[in-house]
């Protein structure tokens, strides 16, 4: 639109210039212009020496050598004109009359150009309009094309399997895929069917995208990369046409890999949407299914996809012939974490005494992305301290930063608030310390961090995959301990404990409805969680139990929480002097490390497993 206005403006200026030019051209001949009557009287009084006829102009030279110009009607011969005015032949005898063709320039300027210019301008205008429409048009044509990008095979950012630490099984599986692409004959000769689709599953940050890029780097075939959300536009039908275009491109450049990242954006279970536009998503998904079926045995194209929500995927995507290979990326265990740290430490100068093993030990539950982020934070912290080499303190500090968000030292607590926070965190820590099945306390702080006013950091001493009911109830007790300590000391609670309470309640509910850990309700789950597509969260829970059971569940949750609270309260009551000591230390130092804490409370006794 802006363009159009600009063009119109330019036309206007050009037009003005041209017309100015012409008016100055035609006005440039400086002769006396006189009327026809004057000429007649001059002829009658024998003053005229010669008349030159040039088009519609009569150039008159008088006997005193002055010149003048007279205009006459176009197409009227001079003799007729003179006759009309009653000028007779003899008066003209002494006058030299000459008829000239119009001069070239004059002819063009006066006759041709006035006709041509409007045409030119109109033609120009139409040309511009067309060009603009064409521009818009070609964009509209691009709309249905997939926006898949091709990873460059040689570029600087080439990723190989070496850059992916851990994830052994996943790498094995994918190496096979690379083999399929490189030596299809080896497999087809044995009658093996080349896998169509490989689905990478894993929580966010476990390296799905990274692994896919590594496959691209290793296979040395074109790698078309698109994100699931890029299929879906505001306009109906675009998604499906993009899918068609993507697969067409892939078939043209076979052997090749298509990678659809975050496929859950289009691959959700069909028929689960709220509004109307889920139709579009479904069409897109259908088109993917159709295209994947459309490959024949010899097409050497493999479709990879990644998601962290396999539970919401449409079952049709997962059946044999489509994404039948599923590669699961687990949260890294301690050895993997060390390996990932090593990969990311390659380009960073680390002090000699840095133990990445120790960092790995302290980062249970971190994903690959968290670990990469940790090393980056450590490097930033080191730079900020004007040091040249990353050392252990920076690494350890970065663990907490990644886990809990940055410290907010600027938030000043009043002495009273500080005291309340100290008792709250002290309560969490002391209860965690005296319960046998909880993770040991690593750090306590009353400095605000992220959204928390203070925090107590517990870290598991080893990776855990299974947990039992005792561990869960003890965890609930620890969560409640903060508020209970406040109550024990001040007789009143503050607003600082809402998230503790919410987490405790959620945990208690899951124990009963998901884990079958309730005595009276038995071994079953309650509630079918159904995803509501547009609201994004599991807000809709289908009840598969009666009203009476619902009451029972509520009662069980309450009793679980009561029990845990009782346990926590007992500990706080019995170890009041320990709590006071911890609070005293917190008021002075604000942050207690593991050894400082244990100097006060003693070594933690851990239940024998
Ligand atoms: P997602 O699974 O969410 O797609 P990404 O593949 O995008 O995760 O991983 C994010 C970042 O985390 C990567 O760029 C990489 O730096 C790091 N990362 C994750 N897993 C690994 C791993 N196994 N080895 C090395 N780096 C990893
Ligand atoms: Mg990803
Ligand atoms: Zn708390």
From TrEMBL:
Would you identify the family this protein belongs to, as annotated? Belongs to the AAA ATPase family.
Query: Which stretches are transmembrane?
Result: 107-130
**UniProt membrane topology term:** Multi-pass membrane protein
Q: What is this protein called?
A: ATP-dependent zinc metalloprotease FtsH
Give the gene symbol.
ftsH
Chain residues that bind Zn(2+): 424, 428, 500
The record's principal subcellular location, in a coarse class, is membrane
- The organism of origin for this protein: Candidatus Falkowbacteria bacterium GW2011_GWF2_39_8
**Keyword annotations:** ATP-binding, Cell membrane, Hydrolase, Membrane, Metal-binding, Metalloprotease, Nucleotide-binding, Protease, Transmembrane, Transmembrane helix, Zinc
- Record-annotated active site: 425
Q: Which EC number applies?
A: 3.4.24.-
SUPFAM superfamilies, sorted: FtsH protease domain-like, P-loop containing nucleoside triphosphate hydrolases
Q: Name one GO cellular component term.
A: plasma membrane
